[in-house]
Every structure is written in C-alpha cells, then in structure tokens.
UniProtKB/TrEMBL annotation:
HTH merR-type domain sequence ranges: 1-40, 119-187
Name listed for the protein in its UniProt record: MerR family DNA-binding transcriptional regulator
Alphabetized SUPFAM superfamilies for the sequence: Putative DNA-binding domain (SSF46955)
Keyword hit for DNA-binding: yes
Gene3D superfamilies the UniProt entry points to: 1.10.1660.10
Keyword set includes DNA-binding: yes
Amino acid sequence: MRPVDLARRHGLSTQAVRNYEDAGIIPPARRSRTGYRDYTATHAAGLAAYLALVPAFGHSTGRRIMRAVTGGRLDEALEHIDDGHALLARDRNTLRTVEAALPHLETSAPDTAAGTRTPYSIGELARHLALSPATLRAWERAGVLTPRRDPLGHRRYLAQDVRDAELAHLLRRGGRPLGTIATVLGELRDAGSLDALAGTLEGWRRHLVSRGTAQLYAAGLLSAYLDSMDEPARTARSASSATRAG
C-alpha cells in the first residue's frame, strides 16, 4: 500500500503518516528496491487504532499506548489503558459527589454572603461561623477554602470566601468529609454560581459518556491491531505445520 493510499483512507497527509512511523506509533514500513515505503494492513490497523485512542485517552496517552504496543511492550500499554480507565472512574465519582451535594446547596445556600462586610480576617470569619480559627486553617489545608493574603501575609476572606465557608459549614453539619466538600466547592468556584454549576455538570456528564464510548471503540480497534500483528506469525506457524505434515 502506498503512503498516499494509507493517508487518504484516514483523511491524513502522507507526511503525517511518515511522522507516525518515525514516532514509533506504527511499525516501520517495508521498502521497495527503489526505496519507496510499502504499507500493509497492519499499518492501516495501527493507524486506525491510534486515531481512535486520541479521543478516548488524549494525544499523549494514545501515543504512549501505541509506542508500547508497536514496540512489543503489551504490559506497558495495558498499564496506560488501566490508568485511563481509572481516571474516567475518578471523574465519574467526582461528578456523582457534586451532583449529590447540589440539591442540598440549592435549598440551603446562604444568601447573606453578598451583603457581608468584607474582607474578613480569620478571627472575624471564625466568629461569624461560631467556629475556631484552627478549623478554618484545617479547611484551607484540605482545599475547602482559598483565602487571599494581604501584603503582610494575613488571610483576607472576600464575599465568595464567606459563601464557601458557610456552605462548607453546612455540608460539615450534614456529615460530609472535607475531601468531598473541597471537590464540591472547587467545582462551584470554577463554575461561578450554583446555576452555572448545574449546567456544567450536565455538560460534564455528556463528556464522560463520550469518553467512555470512545474507550470502548478504541479497545476494539486496538485489539484488531494486535491481531494483525500476530497474523504473520500465525501464518508462518501454519505453513510450518503444513510442511511438517507433508
């Protein structure tokens, strides 16, 4: 198969195919007596697998998986795949955590933070919440709160920090661990508001479904690539067996 034929099959340039070969993503092509590359069905299967791995695991991990498979390091490739699956599982757990907390936040979210005199010092915020400063420092170490610092290094809690502290106090009274609260408030800070967070979660869910589906699809094409790499060996073994039987 000529480079241009392989490239056109996947909507790529011939230079891209050569780059993938040079990077070890697909095996080295056979060369004709005049030096031209001659690609096979194995190269086509490898290229298809790589292009499917990119949306499933990302460019970097997809490259590592393909280099390992093409280089004969299947255990290494499977470790990268396992890591990708574990990351997806963690993201799903985070989504469930935030979704479970959102209804509680929507019904119980404090509405006083915006009108609160700010910035607060740590002592003032502690008195506002009837907590100790040590508790607020523990929440900060856990990533629950992210106060600013003034030029002297003193903590300064703005209106959003007060809101986060009040929500954290609410969730702690509900028995939520600090790690869970940090996750929820981190997502809330990124989204900007509870309404925005609810919309973000729906988009996040769609993205996770898309990643999971892409991983299933990539697994099938990667398996086909592995089969194509084994085919010459199986053919050789069959031919050898036939010769001995004859």
